[in-house]
């Protein structure tokens, strides 16, 4: 009986999760709409929604009729997630920054902080800084610690999902083997989910941005380094040990420059932001940053735009092989360099048309991300909410006064 009882409880949790996810996707829905969206019977929906309302996670509100052709009469009662029921934290570690945000269950960001930080230098100091920033955003949003469901975290390196540890990476030597999830859980007193930053960028754009509703997506983050996140069949794909999508260290030029990973001619040495800035410095003198590259290109500087387009061609050459193998519908370009816009997109597209199989190239669109440098932190928030089955935190007596609203997009898987 114990085994059967456990199976029934697991099934109920799964079904609760289906209802919660359907409400996240739709924003609000009637019980009949939930039954159609989840495939569950109306009786099951009625039972589950009653439980969720009792738990304080779902609220009722009257709405318009479901369809334009519906008969006149009283509008159906709509169900929606109660934003006050709890919150989630998101943390994005870049190589040179830490960004932390807190959002309610309707995906409204209540507070968000960003700080420049040399994350590569010291994992312990970066984790301490993130924990301190988390406390600051919770205080700003008026959120008590027991009203937080959990925390999603993005790190610019491979993450072994089996252990929650950072995989071996010569570009993050101080993080290799670090149980990042456990370390942050200790500092925050919360459940923590950790993933690669580009993977969370893919989730962020799929949830809130350019990839909404698309099942097969390659998200490319172009910044200090280059990485990609994969959404295949509507699910994140990480690979056996978390290194799927690490295109920055794919061989691009056998005779190219030495890469910080120890290899020669990696894509990052030809198309990463530091490589572009170094070439521009030869013409302008002085030290240039990624921000300078984007600014010069925006101002119409021909040299900057040319170098970014060349970088796009290099990235597109590597992506062509991925397109042949994975046959995606969409490539989303994100990260700081995506701020340059069309020169980058045009360069990628040119190489795809030249090097990918014609049928694969014709099937894929290349678009710029719409979330900018917030894609990863929004993906970190979604990492928690998408994994949540609907159980409220220990205390559901939330009194989170809304702070400045930075995004109001509903979560869509």
Automatic annotation (TrEMBL):
Matches recorded under Gene3D superfamilies: 3.30.420.40, Winged helix-like DNA-binding domain superfamily/Winged helix DNA-binding domain
Signal peptide: none
Pfam families (alphabetical): HTH_24, ROK
Taxonomic superkingdom: Bacteria
Family: Belongs to the ROK (NagC/XylR) family.
PANTHER family assigned: GLUCOKINASE, ROK (REPRESSOR, ORF, KINASE) FAMILY
Name of the molecule in the record: ROK family transcriptional regulator
Species name: Svornostia abyssi
